[in-house]
Amino acid sequence: MKLAIRPKKPKRFIQIPQNLTSVFSISSDSSQLSPPIPEIDSEIDRITRLINDHPFHPLLFRHIPPSLLSTTLVEQVLGRLFSGHSNGLKAFEFFKFSLHHSQSFCPSPDAFEKTLHILTRMRHFDKAWELMEEMKQKYPSLLTLKSMSIVLSKLAKFGSFEDTLEAFDRMEKEIFVGRVFGVDEFNVLLRAFCTQRQMKEARAVFGKMYSRFSPNTKTLNILLLGFKESGDVTAVELFYHEMIRRGFTPNVVTYNIRIDAYCKKGCLGDGLRLLEEMEQSNCFPTLETITTLIHGAGIAQNLSRARQLFDEISQRNLKPDIGAYNALMASFVRGRDVKSAVRLMDEMEKMHVRHDNVTYHTLFLGLKRSDGIKGVHKLYRKMAERNFVPKMQTVVMLMKFFCENQRLDLGLELWEYLVERGCCPHGHALDLLVAGLCSRGRVKEAYMCSEQVLERGRHLSEGVFLMLERSLVQAGEADKLRKLDQMIKRLQMVLPSSRGHALGLSASTTVN
């Protein structure tokens, strides 16, 4: 039975704070991509660009020898396709090609989960089910709680309440055959709703199924975190006391959630009070606890307390990680002490703590306010020298900033930087760049960027197409407009567009 997806209104993206992901984590050996092996780096770049830059299936046979496809290489290529928001069907095709034509590729949980994530993110649920069905037959060990979580979370986001429950039932009866569903699987279902702040649905599922799946500590912590994510401290405390009445004993995750709820509201004093309560209960604070409080100190604009809490990490026989450094950096940026944030970035290098996307994004935000285009450009150059590829949110922020400051040269440079590294820049980045280029009569460059997106199997937004249509007609470039129209219609044959995507020229439109 094929699962129908009923469209829902789009919702704001929810990011679970780094310091609280443990309560939602699913046990898996593939939670992190393995570091690339230097010898295959160039092949990873080549294959990623190849997949992004060309049409579908035939090129794989012509340009990728199956003997080249090791497990590590496939994992790394899929990681690049995932972070670059590449066409989900291309990633699916690459995984299947590796699976069916390479004797040296043994499908790993990481490769399977990345492919599932790419497909469901682009709402290709039929392909996700197809992939899970094949894994059930050939590699049932790859069907883990994490893979279940990926699919259910995206269904909760894009589908309906009924769709998600139906998928859970289908997984139990048709996909995870032979596995007895218990509280761990129940927790995955609850997590799917809680990560989307759908607490009414989460409570409904809890009330309907708790008698079948005996809740454990993690179950109640997932619900507590869901209430915290909804931003209602009162709801968090009410549910916490309900948990206590049920005979629940709070653990360190419970305290971390409550502390974060207060810190997010700027109530640092309440967070510190709970820290004392933890210690008195012999529930020892973790690195995540202190990191949460550093965030809270930043929100409360108490920079000295943020630094003090950071310094206490080593005094507690803990070692600061990238999350703790990023929390302190965010505190400096919130307090407009960007110089200290820059020095902290240098300190991280000395301590061999690698910068991640949060590090760059946070400092870019600070430099935008303090140093303007000069400071942002300097950090951008530093990032590019290290071949760091930023995530979508940072790309869109930079593109918007460059275009607003009349630096279309930097916008185009960022675009080319991403394309050269096998990324297909996100649609919002293209919208901003095309709008900036067309408004200044640079239609040829706007057309070139749009053509690259279509070549990579991604649709144009309706707004971008209309801007290009108007600008190309005014510039007397009817041939380019017809070519764009043909590319859009060819892509629709392989990958149907959704609402808001360009459909090309209508039959009644004439182009002279």
UniProtKB/TrEMBL annotation:
PPR repeat segments: 216-250, 251-285, 286-320, 321-355, 356-390, 391-425
Classification via InterPro entries: Mito_RNA_Proc_CCM1, PPR_rpt, TPR-like_helical_dom_sf
Domain of life per record: Eukaryota
Keywords: Repeat
Pfam families: PPR, PPR_2
PROSITE patterns: PPR
Protein name, UniProt field: Pentatricopeptide repeat-containing protein At3g61360
Species this protein is from: Nelumbo nucifera (Sacred lotus)
Higher taxonomy: Eukaryota, Viridiplantae, Streptophyta, Embryophyta, Tracheophyta
